Amino acid sequence: MQSQPTPHAAPVIPTAPTGVLRLRDPRHRVHRKSILWWTLRSAIFWVVVIVGQVLGEVLPAQPPGWLKITLVVSIVLGVLQVVIEPQWRYRVHRWEANHEAVVTRSGWINQEWRVAPLSRIQTVDTKRGPLEQLLGLATVTVTTASAAGPVQIAGLAHDAAAALVDELTATTQATPGDAT
Amino acid sequence: MSELTTAGLVGSAPVAPDAVVQAPWRRLEIRTILVRPFNEILSFIPLLIGVVALGQHHGNQIWWGIGVIALLLGRGLLHWLTTRYRITDEQVELRTGLVFRQRLATRRSRIRTVEATAKFGHRLFGVTAVRIGTGQHDQKDRKTMRLDAVTNAEADRLRRELLRRDTAPAVEDGVVAPQPAPGTLIARLDWGWLRYAPLTLSGLFAMVAVAGLVWRSLNELDIDVYRVGLARDTVRWLEHSNIGMVIAVVVVAALVIIVFGSMVVYALKFSGYQLIRESDDTLHMRRGLLTTSAVTIEEARLRGVEISEPLLLRAGKGARCTAVATGLQHKSESHLLMPPGPVVEAHRVAAQVLRTTEAGSPTRAELVRHSTMALRRRLVRAVVPALLLVAVLWLAHVWVGWPDWLWQVACALPVLAVPLAINRYRNLGHALTPRYLVSRLGSLNRRTVAIQRDGIIGWKIRKSFFQRRVGLVTLSATIAAGRGAYAVLDVTESDGLALANETVPGLLAPFVVTDPQ
Fold it and tell me: Does B516 sit within 8 Å of A23, measured CB to CB?
């Protein structure tokens, strides 16, 4: 930045951004066990896909020729996803809540930030799938009046999830109006 | 028991007006029993014509038909018997169903829209189906409140009553509602707009639908096409003429049918169209020839407007205008504000609906172009999949022996994709007016949407793998109306965040940092 000694000559450009804006990382990571959760999730999917194809290869007398190709491709993709996706997701998935808004970042190849102001929150739910229960994790879903895109924080520890729900509910109930 | 009945029937009993809290339960109109079966039978008419005209029917099918009609009548009766509704000062309640008893209740303050639709059968019997639209989540749960059907007078009363926000006492049975001051007309159908009909694809769809119906009827009735003289002659002519002639005739015939069909569809859908602003600050749109539809939107809940210009319509300087509002069904086009017509008119309607001057309409705001990175992304996204398709078809030709004209024809796709991508880029843009966020995108269907900045209830910022590499983001404003989220496609991250910060100050700011340049 250059300093200008003659103040009246300097044109004042109001609120013009002086730098490049970017989103910063939200403050909190999800629980470390999420890595295991995502690993199991993709592993189960790929095991089903691969076993199905293996059966298709073994059982019939004349298995179709293309089945070998898809089987090899499935195994390569499956191993890659099971190894890469959980680590990648763990680096991406983050969340933060302050007095005005809750923000999440999720995804891996494609990533998405979602922001919802606390004043517009309609419901806060906790959900636990079977795998999540096994690992002691929970997913907090925050919905607003919009049909598009509830804000979801997946892979929180049980107590952290409960604390977050309490906090968000307390703030939301203090806000009047029907949040549309 | 007798006390209850009198209280329900006679409002003139010596009771203080504010003591009448318990509004009576009402039934649907008795004619409903006939309306539904009648509508169902109407859709069988092509089949019936086939049976009568071609004289090929089997006794069995007639009995089946009678059985089906009896079932439909029975269902109508059950529906009428089991459905009751009432409107209290606080809420609207609906009870329905025999086996699965349903009881729906909605607070009146949550009602956003009232939609009255009358199919041809409804029209004949002088009744109307009323749908009461509330927030978005109600739609997802499919718990829509539908009264199918009530008398036209009752439908009109419901419309005025349900969207009224003052606390005046509810209008009693038999008392004529005070006639409200007349509204202002915003737009009405100009039959000259019929020239835009062929530019919509409705004619094509109609032709495909009719052809499908005819085909199915013929199949179901086991009619041998070759025994009909006209069809036989046509086939013989096709077999004995030269190919160029056949193609020319087929193309001309298809064009004529499409143009004619689209005009018929347009007339059926939009005849009698008018858009009125009522004196109680609701927007009232009605349209339709055989099936009529009347939609009332509470203006305070209108979150914006959208002007859509599909490619063909755009080429003819046409457009249509829709509302971004809560409680409307997107599928049934109930959010329509103006049918396909001149683009100038669409902007005028948008301006009037948003209560701005015509020149100040946000839909006409000058848009900020997006960076050339966005152009590159549009090109890649259009051309690469087309190239992949060509490659796959070529491989299939070499390995599996698919005909080679497949991949040769497909070669045209990557070439066609280039102008499409360039056009998509040229259409990209956004703007910020004092009250609205404006975004435009799309080529095959260019949409310009203006949404209220006050109505924005969150942001979604999406970065795909390739967007991250070039520093672009897709910024979507979430809103409790319309599609739920409206995107500004492929802006640079910095511009997008600045836009979001300016649109709704404070919401995103805590999560944004500024790097010195």
Answer: no
